[in-house]
Amino acid sequence: MNGQHTLNPGNTDRGIVTQQRAAPAAARQPIEDDKVMLRAARDLTKDIAEANPAIYWTDMLVSALIGYGALAGAILADSVPLAIALGVISALALYRALLFIHEISHFRRGAMARFGAAWNVLVGIPLLTPSFMYEGAHVIHHKRTQYGTVEDPEYLPLALMKPWTLPLFVVIAPLATVGLLFRFAVLVPLGAVIPAVRRVTWARFSALAINPKFRRRPVEDDLRQKVFWQELGGAVWAWTLIASVFLLGWKPILIAFAVFSVVATVNQLRTLVAHLWENEGEPMTVTAQFLDSVNVPPPGRIAELWAPVGLRYHALHHLMPSMPYHSLPEAHRRLARELGEGSTYHGANHPGMASLVARITRSTMTRR
Questions:
Q1: How much is the pTM?
Q2: Residues 70 and 97 reside in one and the same domain
């Protein structure tokens, strides 16, 4: 872990990595950057670092089409089992479509602007999660001096908290649907006429954050126009949903909200296992951030359902945040092959969600 790694799969530093990650936070030593791994991540992936627009457009459009088609089928179905089956299909497809917000947040300024606009019209605004809720905020989670600190909107030391925090973290997820509807239907119009409401809404309810202490800074100039149009679209859509009750009855919106709540819950479960959550607020090296993050690589296939669009390689993403999602599987194969099972890189690979939840749960049990 001191930058002197070799490419020998039998490297004894692997035991040091394991011990450091398993040790209590108070006893854990700072992890220095593994320069061999960082250099390999840079050098072995240069030829796959460019986004392929055709893959992005096809994946997003097909996912949205399946999601909305299955949602319509669930609303129109006469059979309850059929409606449930279609609802599950809709939730998984819309979940995949929604997670392109993560890719959009990493686009270089001006890159694939049409894709971002189309995504907002087709997915972001209909699901009341437009891209400004990630753009400009998510990048904080990748800053070396802010990852895992109180300034990070996407980090809580869950493994170091009380046992009851884990079920609470998951069960509040379905409330996000109602909260987003309230934000766009009530707070946005009020904020247009009451500056104080606008400031509070932006600071506290304008980022997809899990850190309750996070406060978003005033809107950046390059986002200001996007925010205006996306909030306007969200407010119009929110009131359209409310008005639909009087035109179509309660069934369509209740089924839609049930599907969106499943999406929110699956995403919360994914978030729960995206990191090991073992940092107590101190700045971390890139390698330490990598080892606090999670890869769930093949051969398991189910991870592609709950961590799609490259998010099953979340630790690798923290090494190379700008790497397009469709290149992450190949990048993982190259690094795993080159560095070997005894390397630092192998230390971020985990078998699946169940083992990760069990690990975090065991950690919280020591905090009673």
A1: 0.90
A2: yes
